[in-house]
Amino acid sequence: MPRSSNPSAAKGGPVTLTQVARRAGVSAQTVSNAINSPDMLRPETLERVRRAIDEMGYRPSRAAQTLRTRSSRLIGYGIQPALSSSPVLDRFLHALSQAADEAGYRILLFASPSGGPALDGYEELLGQHEVDGFVLSGTERGDPRQAWLTRRGVPFVGFGRMWSGRQIGDWVDVDGASGTDAAVEHLVAQGHRKIAFLGWERGVSGAGDDRAEGWQRAMRRHGLSTRGRRGQSVNDTDAARMAVKPLLDGGATAVIAASDMLALGCYQMLRERGALPGRDVSVVGFDDSPAAELLSPTLTSLAQPLEEVGRECVRLLLARIASPDAPPERLLLEPSLVVRDSTAAAPHGAAR
Question: Which SMART domains match (predicted)?
């Protein structure tokens, strides 16, 4: 049958499985089934897919042709453009790549659309059978990926909980509540009683709510009031600068921020008021980003054990690949408080 023209072929690029699926009016998985498991399809569907393959000159990848006989030794990881410059995710990706390399695997990066997790890139890779499993990050409420991969029997592990009630699959996460609880303990030991929390809007981020819960739990344990001491901001320095103002006006002698970015906003507002972090108001961040040691004064922050997270993600994923029916494993790792100059004893007379 003569090959019809298509934009990709005209430009000299290879025809993709997704393009074939679009031409045939089916999903990428259906095209994959036509190549590897044709008996699963109805005859008319199989004929339509094969006709599209012939017309477009599609050549299945070697990985697709040998899926049942060998492993690709590749682990897929989708990166969202808005998060690609995050110091936390940069460090996690480095740790993940190193752990995969030690296990004889490679991380295959692919672009994931901004605006939240989407399935397009995952379906494309699965259709071409170029990965043995996936590592997911940014696992917020409403994330469709875990359920979608589970229904297809695809191994995956999440860096982060699902936050939506029902837990699916294996995951590794950092116990943010334990971290902010430890930050409150540190500040109480220094005489602080008016300890505020600057986080993200309730319900927007599971990790943000988790960090707020640790602060609330510790404050209740010490009999300290949280009324009027919680501020909300997007993860932006200027927005945090404005959000912390009413907390300082209310007499807070210490602020625990849900991220180092929010803590930086606290620094800026304190400087505008002629105050100094540590000397006048103690500030604690979260993530222990590279900026924490460069700020003046240096920032006390909660460090996530990202190297351990990377190792455990690879271990859990390879275990899932080896034993698909094993019970799920979930790990909650403790962050550590790195004390620097931004926390000090409460100002005299301000403890109560």
Answer: HTH_LACI
Same domain membership, residue 51 and residue 78: no
Residues 252 and 285 in one domain: yes
Q: Which domain holds residue 256?
A: 176-304
DSSP classification of residue 82: G
Give me 85's structure tokens: 């410059």
95 and 141 together in one domain: yes
Helix (H, G, I), strand (E, B) or coil at 254: strand
Beta-sheet strands, E only, within 233-281? 254-257
**Continuous segment of H or E residues that includes residue 5:** none
Q: What is the pLDDT of residue 174?
A: 97
- Rounded to whole angstroms, the Cα distance separating 216 from 223 reads 10
DSSP 8-state assignment for residue 329: -
pLDDT tens digits, 277-331: 999 999 999 999 999 999 999 999 999 999 999 999 999 999 999 998 899 999 9
Structure tokens at 314: 């690879």
CA angle 250, 194, 235 (to 5 degrees): 70
- Residue 143, pLDDT above cutoff 90: no
In the chain, the amino acid numbered 257 is: A
In a domain, 203, yes or no: yes
User: Domain tally for the chain?
Assistant: 3
Whether 197 and 81 share a structural domain: no
What mean pLDDT value characterizes the chain? Answer: 87
What CATH code is carried by the domain that includes residue 134?
A: 3.40.50.2300
Residue with tokens 């290879």: 14
Label residue 68 exposed, middle or buried (CB < 10 Å: 0-12, 13-18, 19+).
Answer: exposed
> Does residue 285 sit in the same domain as residue 186?
yes
What is the model's pLDDT at position 166?
Answer: 74
Does the structure show a pLDDT above 70 at 9?
A: no
Rounded CA separation 43/95 (Å): 47
Q: Please, are residues 52 and 24 in contact by the beta-carbon 8 Å criterion?
A: yes
Distance CA 236, CA 220 (A): 29
Identify the H or E element spanning 288.
none
Q: 41 with 150: CB under 8 angstroms?
A: no
pLDDT value for 7? 41
